[in-house]
Design brief:
- This protein has seven helices and 25 strands.
- The protein is α/β, with parallel strands linked by helices.
- The chain has three domains: about 5-115, Sandwich (Immunoglobulin-like); about 125-340, SGNH hydrolase (Rossmann fold); about 350-450, Immunoglobulin-like (Sandwich).
Length: about 450
């Protein structure tokens, strides 16, 4: 028969708690029962107690501490978990002999591999859910944990978004899943912060933005919010989505729907939770250029106009099939995402396009090294004027400026685009100081240099 203490709620093995000002407030509780022999011998006190221990060396964060609320057969308490870990939470029933005053600590439940660090919700569609098939070194790390769709915490390993024991989970996958960028991201973020990372998968392959828009369908938004509330607090939302909207005729309303998603999520979170987003890579074998360009423009606009929204280009990624990013590119994107978050790096982005002496000068912000042109034929850029498309005869880059030489004289209004279409150039412009690819843009007007 059970005696001692059990844990019934509040803490699960492998759980990561979101740190706030260097700590997490944890509430835990359960049941207790005195051993029959001790009851017959007589006790003067019986107190469910807890302690927190560092797993790396067995040292105590705090030693045995009496639970704050003890009633008949039930106990509950709160404690501060400092950032770091991994920790072991131990419980016992501390009974004091009525005759000798001796303490008898009867055994209790433990919860292993706990951490206090940063929790991230993964949202979007298939490249967030992880459909990259193939081989790449992307190994589990004891510092990176995942709350699986079954509701159980675990050490993170691909696939993060699996369907095991998750029949009722709205984002459980219908097909075979593979890799995403987020295990790689978690390892690197743990390197930078020295704290464990918790990942909460909420993405579903093929989902349109309206499934994430609380003003429309919103069923995946509701699921994401439920998962967010279940963990209490998160550090950020990690977002890769838009492929479906690039093809379903709703690209022109993407920005408005995404802005509603951000604002609603922040109301539910209780603070301006950051969104870290990816500008779409592409799709092979489809002639849907306009939709893809419009979604990328909306994603770029969101990062420029909505505070706390950050963006990383996925252009140039290797493909596992016609639309899913390869495992090796996922590893790279995950590492780059951590540099964006932890080092404040930003993807180069166009800030001006001017005509000077018959040439187009493109100036970029967020360049830490110098812009590197990897395709001397300038196939990643496009010009058009009043007479239509204009070939580019030469491209050159210096520091944060790219110069395009048109193959003919320009006439009327001129527009420039970069890394556009349903499948952008495989060698986009890159910042030599960070390795980050420049953001795509479409039909930016070129002004005359004064």
């Amino acid at each position: 028969m059970f005696y001692g203490t059990t844990i019934t709620h509040g803490v699960d093995p492998w759980q990561v708690f979101q740190r706030v000002n260097g700590r997490a407030r944890v509430r835990v509780g359960g049941l207790w029962r005195l051993e029959d022999g001790a009851a017959r011998a007589g006790v003067s006190a019986q107190e469910p107690s807890i302690r927190l221990v560092r797993e790396e060396d067995g040292s105590c964060v705090f030693d045995w501490t009496r639970a704050q609320s003890i009633t008949d057969g039930r106990w509950e308490t709160e404690f501060d978990m400092p950032e770091g870990g991994l920790y072991r939470l131990e419980t016992c029933l501390d009974a004091v002999s009525a005759k000798s005053g001796e303490h008898w600590r009867f055994h209790g439940d433990m919860r292993m591999h706990l951490g206090c660090g940063d929790v991230f919700v993964i949202a979007g569609q298939s490249n967030a859910a992880g459909y990259g098939k193939g081989i790449a070194w992307d190994a589990p790390d004891v510092r990176v944990h995942v709350k699986r769709n079954s509701g159980l915490w675990d050490m993170a390993a691909h696939p993060l978004n699996d369907a095991t024991d998750a029949a009722d989970c709205p984002n459980a996958p219908m097909g075979q899943v593979g890799t995403s960028p987020f295990l790689s991201f978690g390892r690197r973020h743990a390197d930078f912060t020295g704290c464990p990372v918790g990942l909460i998968p909420a993405a579903q392959g093929g989902s349109p933005l309206k499934a994430w828009d609380p003003a429309r369908d919103g069923y995946l938004y509701n699921n994401m919010i439920a998962k967010l509330h279940a963990v209490g607090r998160a550090a950020a939302i990690l977002w890769y989505q838009g492929c479906t909207d690039a093809s379903n005729g709703e690209a022109d309303i993407y920005f408005e729907g995404f802005e509603r998603l951000v604002n609603a999520t922040r109301r539910e979170a209780g603070f301006d939770i950051p969104f870290y987003t990816f500008q779409l890579a592409g799709v092979l074998g489809r002639a849907e250029d306009r939709g893809w360009d419009a979604v990328r423009q909306a994603q770029r606009r969101a990062a420029r106009e909505i505070p706390g929204v950050y963006i990383l280009s996925a252009a140039g990624s290797g493909m596992a099939d016609n639309i899913h990013i390869s495992p090796s590119s996922n590893v790279l994107l995950g590492e780059q995402l951590s540099y964006v978050m932890d080092r404040g790096w930003r993807a180069p982005d166009l800030i001006s396009a001017q005509l000077r002496g018959g040439k187009i000068e493109l100036k970029y912000e967020n360049v830490r090294g110098e812009l590197s042109v990897r395709d001397p034929l300038a196939r990643g850029f496009a010009l058009r004027d009043a007479f239509g498309e204009v070939a580019i005869s030469e491209i050159a880059a210096m520091a944060n400026t790219v110069t395009l030489t048109p193959a003919r004289a320009l006439c009327g209004r001129v527009f420039v685009s970069a890394s556009c279409g349903s499948m952008p150039d495989v060698y986009p412009l890159m910042d030599s100081g960070t390795g980050l690819c420049a953001l795509s843009f479409f039909d930016e007007p070129v002004s005359a240099k004064k």
